[in-house]
Amino acid sequence: MKIKTIFNHEFKVFALNKTFLILTLVGPFLILGVTVLPSILTMNISETISISIFCMDKNIEENLGKALQNMMQIFDIEQVKNILIQKEFIAKDTIIEKEEDIIKLLDLAVSKKVITGYLYIDPDFYQSKKATFVVNKIADYKNLGIIEVTLKQFLVSYNLISQGLNPELVSSAFVQPELEVKQLTKAGKENQDFFALLMTCLGFGMILYMTTLLYGQSIGRSVLTEKTSKTVEVLLSSARPIEFLYGKILGQAFAALLQYTVWAVMGIIFFKYLGPILNLNLPFTIKTEYFIYLIVYFILGFFLYSAGFAIIGSASDDEQNLGQLSWPLIIFLMIPIVMISPIVMNSDSTFVKFMSLFPMTSPIVMFIRVVVSTPSFIEIIISILLLLITIALFMIIASKVFPIGLLMSGRKFTFKDIRSWLKF
Amino acid sequence: MEIEARNLYKSYGQVQAVKDFSFKTESGKIYGIIGPNGAGKSTTIRMIMGILLPDSGQILFSGEKLNYSTLNRIGYLPEERGLYRKQICEDVLIYLAELKGKKKKQIYNRMCELLERFNLIEYKNKKIETLSKGMAQKIQFISTVLHEPDYIFLDEPFSGLDPVSIDELRDFLLELKNQGKVIMFSTHNMEQAERICDNISLINHGIEVLGGTIESIKSRFGKNSISISFEGILPDLKSIAKNVQNYPKWAEIELINGVSSQDCLSFLVKSDVKINKFEVIQPSLHSIFVKVVKEIYNEEVEYEDKNNI
Questions:
Q1: Residue A165: which CATH number?
Q2: What are the CA-CA distances from residue A279 to residues A179, A284, A285, B19, B81 (Å)?
Q3: Predicted-complex ipTM score
């Protein structure tokens, strides 16, 4: 059997070079950087903002200030004026009396970034229900939401109190309840944070998606290069096409597993040791079983897609043709990633269950279900069995199409051509 | 050792690539498969090496069907160079030899010897992509013979080589021939084939149109003519010649059937004429090939015209 020789060669070519080393070390950070980090940054803006409240009705101004001061820093007009004088944005003897003077002062404070923004409340607020929030950037949805909710509660409280209800009773009605989420797993009930789960699924899902795509495409390209450079003719005079195919896939699979092992070790060091030292509170739920499932589904997904990419590589005539023929495979890989949020939220819906059993999507979707919910063991076994059957089918197709595709050249091939090769 | 192919057929859909092709070649001989592009040479070679399966027919290596161990005894040089451009020469050579069942330690010294012989030893650790076309061609050739195969298939082995390298390669091939290897050529360069091959098969549209030793083919297509350069007066040649083109110092004599060049020479020696040069005129392989292919083409056109195809 020459699979071992081909395997050694492929592993050596793929794993023993600078690119692999750099990708192994930088890869997880890149994956986190392009996927999870933007979400964390968007949802974790915790910078305290400073605002001023201005209303001609001083009673409203004072009460709203009190309602918001737990969540943001509230500056009164006098404080804002003093800061502006201190920073020499206005003269010491500036007189601020009229409403338009105050608004000009606050506008200046916002534009000079002395405060993040100011809330202008209509003097007839209880009737008109109008307020304006002036800020230097509108991207902070979290704080905008807080202000909106506070204004709403303020109005409701006023209306209830004006109807004769006890003010204490009204304020107690707006106390936020504490909701703790617990997931029932085989090990018992465990605390689960949805955001942490989503990030874990996104992180691991992206690792599965990107590695399967990268390694799969790498096999397709490598087959194409050997085909176009005619190296394949020499190889096929030495080994059977199927040995060539298996050796290539196995060699790259082991290179990928080596990379996974390094990443797992890096992950453990980072989360267990560096995280606590650096006081990092990363929103991930990491368990050993996740790594086991990750590796199982990676191997299965990898073999499935590699066989697919190998067929396509052998049938392609150039990079452009390879790109065109790869699309159906890439789309199947992308679907679970694009739908990751609904999959996490409805992990036991019929559609998600179907996706977790359908071999083209199951490597990623079943893995997400394992993390999010508790799919039955039978479901996991069925998904693995279906994947194994499909891999066997793909390998049979590959072994038929592969030698013909490799030797055919000179024009762009279509899926119709590939289907006709099955008859040879 | 020998390779024998019996009644090979291969088609791709409606296209008949090889039709009823048979040949036999043995050790110590160089066999050429010659034909224009698309004639079926590559398909034939690929079938011999087991890359493609024939639709019908048999290929025997010393009486046995191609099996796994026979693959290791085959060396193949493809027409288009097939090497890993990003890898260094040594790694490529060792990998391709390992695929032929050899261990690195078994072939390392021979690899160095061959690199030395072809003046490439200083490129051992250089990437293939840094080599010139001719150098890469020589590396490809070394990879073909490094594992000491018994059966060697060479597709256009001299293309891209300078005259000195051609001589080096030809000398090496003659050594291999003398060692008793079975060597097969596939080429469309008739001149090279004529100089190197012992036997040839001329194929066109997948069909063998001519086959045998170079001498037998040439004698079959030769005009049985003699070219002489002389001094004096040429005697009357009616008894031996059909036709004579006579010039003051040169003549071309077309002999009567049954009269050999030897008979002609002795006839001339007995006369008073002084012979400066005596040469049997033989057609080149190229002209024979063109003639045969044209004849076939004309027959096909005639057949199509007759049958209104």
A1: 3.40.190
A2: 25, 14, 16, 77, 58
A3: 0.75
